[in-house]
Structures are given as C-alpha cells and as structure tokens.
C-alpha cells in the first residue's frame, strides 16, 4: 500500500496531500520504466494518470520487451472532478404526536473515504424548506433530475400521494380518487412514471397525474412494503411477507428473487447487480398504530439474481431506508446507532461487504426516510418526530367516560412504548427514549420522580 495510518481518515489525508513513495526504494530490482508506470498511476491529478487501459497495457508490454517507454500522444477523456454531494431536505412541523419535516440540510464538512487510490469526498450543503402544509408528510422521493418531489400525506392508514416542484408551487394530487393507503412513491429512471403501493398492490401513475394502473398484486393476506425500480426502468422489485420479488414494468408475472426476514424498503444498485433492503421492524415505516416505533432492524444486500445475502449494519439499532449512491460502492441509510435518527454512510467493496464501519454524516435530524437524485447531488428526507406519554383515567362504574378526564402520568418529549404495573399496584415500569435510546424507568403509580434503571447503549424495552 502506498500509504498507511491508524484510521481511514489519516490514510485519506496522506493520499490527498503526500507524494507516494518511490517503489524502487522498496525494491531496487524493479525496472526504472515500471517505477515510472506505478508513479504515473498514483498521480494526484486525474488528467496526469493513464486515461485508458489500452494506454497502460502498451507501456507494460514495452517494459516486458525491454524497450524504453516513448512519449506518445494519446487522446484523453475530459478529466472527472472529485465527487461532491450536496445533501438536501424538507421541513414541516405539526401539532400531532407524529410530525414530519422535509428539510435541506446545512452542515459544513468534508468526509473522506478510502476506495483504492481515489479519495471519496462528501460535502454537505445548504438547506431549503420544501413543504408547509398541515398534517403528516412522509416517504419523500426526489425525481431523477432533482427538480420534483413526490410524497405521501394524510392520516396514517389513509394517506394519499402528491407531487410538487422543489422550487415551489402548489402540490399536485396523484391519488385523490384512489381508496386505501397510498405510500412509498418511487420515480421511474426516466422521470415519466411513479410507482407506489396501496395495501397489497403496486400501481403505476403518470408523474404529473393520470389514471393509476395496477401492476402487480400480492396475496390478499400480505402487504407490499417498499418497491424499487431497476436502473434501466424495465423491472420493479418489491417485498411482501418474507419474499423479495420483481416483475416487469409492463406487468408480467412476478418472479421470486429471495426469501428474507421481513424485508422492506428496497434500493436497486446503479448497475442493477445488487438490491439493498431493510430486515425487521417494517412498522417503523409502514405501520399505522406502530408507525415510528423504536425497534431494531438491519440493512442487507443481495444479488438481484438471488443468492447469499450480506448484512452490512448492526442488528441492535434501528437501521432503515438504504439508498445507493451513483458509484454503487457507497450506501446511505438512516440509523439511531448513536442516539437520534441520522444519515449514515457506508463504504462497500466489490462483493458488497462493508469496508470499515459506518460514518455519521448528520446530527439531530430525526430522519424517517431518504431519497437521492440520479446525479447524487440532492438528497431529500422527511423528519419524523414521535412522542408518546402515559396517561390515566378512572374506570367508570357504569356508562362511558370522556377522554377529557384523563390526566398525564408522564410528560416530556419522549416515546414510551411499553408499560407494566407491579403486582402490589405501587410501581409503574416503562421504557422511554428520553436520553436518546430506550431505557427502563420506574415511578410510583401515585406520581413522583421517575428513576432510571438501565443505561445500556442499546435499546431496553417492554419491562415486566
């Protein structure tokens, strides 16, 4: 290796700023011509490196015959610049237990990742507010050209789809006449159609409105969860039950790709060879009663032709919504690994295995899902804030009682999912994410200060 260091960041810094060592200093028997080939391949500027494999091969063959390398005029491609990602989002706030904001993120910083001799650079740019309407808004999907956003809005279990321009304007209703729960809009690669799910079916609708067409229907007892277009626009992969399937965008019979543990929220790699998916806790994205719950899930990758899956995240945190970056070697996703839900980046090798651990790109976003433009320069996400506290109400001896008589037992910006009363009726135990992740607390049923019983970095829930 031309550089070494204790961390990927220190190695990347050397790649960016230090000249590589002369190979002949490591092995004097290397021919001078080969030494020149290696150093030219390691040039910092792309335009100074070999521009084609044929050019490199010609020099290597010359070395093999023992002839000196001659300077040749070789047609060169336009040099590519380093990759720059401007991450964008949208914003909204509701007076509801669950609220969503779609925001364009403004955090300055550079992150360097190792990928062979190149440096992968991410720059997080300015924010822009997109939506302002009251009510819940989730599942944002940015169009391939980055100019439009499709999203789901309404009450959980009865949502409809809308499209609006990033630059502003009124939203266009796509599914106002459709019954059911319309979710997870996904743009076709050419931007002409949007695929979405409603109950156990996938539909296609023109991007600016029209009559939806049912594409495929899962068994009646199953719910479709998170479809994805293939990069050529010919096929759509989707999950239901424990199956990942795909079908032709023209409506052919579906084929089963793989059996997985409750897969959902799929993402197809840019070259069409891989499908990334989330395993477990589909209710976080697609539930009604349990929408936004805090339970672990993990992200996996599998060949689009089937085969052995690879887990790329931990299974102790909430990890959801994978999105491939344009190079196919980097994956963005949402995780609460270090507390609140933020956007993380993971580097993959050629076989889909993770290279090192994930890198946290944002702090304090409360992201629900993310979507990336085709060029990788705009990223939209919905911010989801969920609160749930414990209340008490007297049990009436006869007749109904008004919920207005209920009194709060706990208060605060927290989510409580499991409660249990001790057998003697004196203590209440519950889980809460008041300090970032779920821990167990207890307090007197009659009221008083809560006592934190656990402080594990993972989620502790459902006390008894």
Count of the separate structural domains? 3
Residue fraction in strands? 25-35%
Major β-sheet annotation: 4 strands, antiparallel
Q: Helix count, per DSSP?
A: 5
Q: What CATH architecture of the largest domain do you see?
A: 6 Propeller
> Helical percent range?
under 10%
Q: Structural class of the secondary elements?
A: mainly beta
Placed side by side, the strands forming the largest sheet appear as 4-5-6-7
**What name is given to the CATH topology of the largest domain?**
Neuraminidase
Report the strand count: 31
Low-confidence stretches are 70-118
What gap, in angstroms, lies between the N and C termini?
Answer: 54 Å
Rough outline: globular
CA radius of gyration is 26 Å
Q: Kindly provide the name of the CATH class of the largest domain.
A: Mainly Beta
Q: CATH homologous superfamily of the largest domain, by name?
A: TolB, C-terminal domain
Rounded mean pLDDT score:
83
Question: What descriptive keywords fit this protein?
Answer:
single chain; about 475 residues; Neuraminidase; 4-stranded antiparallel beta sheet
How would you describe what is shown here?
The protein is mostly beta strands and 464 residues long. It has 3 domains: 22-80, no CATH class; 98-386, 6 Propeller (Neuraminidase), CATH 2.120.10.30; 391-452, no CATH class. It has helices at residues 8-17, 23-26, 32-41, 53-65, 283-286; strands at 98-102, 110-115, 118-123, 137-142, 148-155, 158-165, 172-173, 182-187, 193-198, 201-206, 213-217, 228-229, 235-240, 243-248, 255-259, 263-268, 274-279, 298-303, 310-311, 319-324, 330-335, 342-347, 359-360, 367-372, 379-386, 391-392, 407-408, 419-421, 427-432, 439-444, 451-452. The protein has a 4-stranded antiparallel β-sheet, with no helix packed on it. The protein has a 4-stranded antiparallel β-sheet with strand order 8-9-10-11, with no helix packed on it. Strand 6 and strand 7 (172-173) form a beta hairpin. The chain is globular and about 100 Å long. The N and C termini lie far apart (54 Å).
